[in-house]
Pyruvate formate-lyase activating enzyme (Anaerostipes rhamnosivorans), 260 residues
Amino acid sequence: METNYEGKDKKGMILRLERSSIYDGDGFRTVVFLKGCPLRCSWCSTPESQNFQMEETETKTYGQEMTVEQVLKEIRKDIPFYFHSGGGLSVSGGEMLCQPEFSRCLLQQARKEGIDTAIETTLFAPWKTVEPILGHVRTVFADLKFMDSDLHKKYCGVDNRLILNNFLRTNDCSTQFDLIVRIPVIPGVNDSKEELNRMGDFCAQLTHLDHVQLLPYHRLGSDTYRKLGRPYELEGLLSPSVEHMETCRAVIGQYVSKVI
Ligand code: SF4
């Protein structure tokens, strides 16, 4: 194993490392959640990941500085599990593109060591930040929350044009990666027939697309808002029914061959 490599001592602000997640890529995953996110989604289930700085409540500290090598040391412990399950490293957030050099060096070295890599991202960053990362990943999970810019700004705090442009620019990438588009279904917010049709039509234009995942809204994280002393804006909103999720899948399924 290389003892000296690019970015080995680069520091990142880590929210937590989680093992055996089944949602963040194939097989057994070690998920590195980074702190910091430029969005403020009203339904965010990890408000403790949004601020880049360390945060403390009465009972918990959120955030810890670690170097690339310190994180990789933890990841290497899980290599035997990756081997049998086809798993690997997933870098998530917050928004992992907020710490681009740390993320790139971590992913690059993991790949060099033969570890499978995936990222979870909003794609909310300049293309010159996004592109170098894509060269080091096998799977990209990217969120598509709205097509409508005004709604995106209202519910996520930022305009979505940068995100939509970045999605389309992945079409020009010659590197090999599978793109999985994740659409959170937030009842009464982004699940109108019109929005769903626009999202389906948009996904059909993405050449790296493997499939689309629809994720039902849930209230996980609302307790953390209380602990952090922040209001939870979607108080009282219920999760979508199984039937409603099927209806949404059927709309998107008119445009793309695989929707789960
Ligand atoms: S992009 Fe993700 S981490 Fe950032 S605010 Fe939205 S849900 Fe939370």
Remarks:
- The chain has one domain: 15-217+232-253.
- Residues 100-112 form the longest helix (13 residues).
- The mean pLDDT is 94.
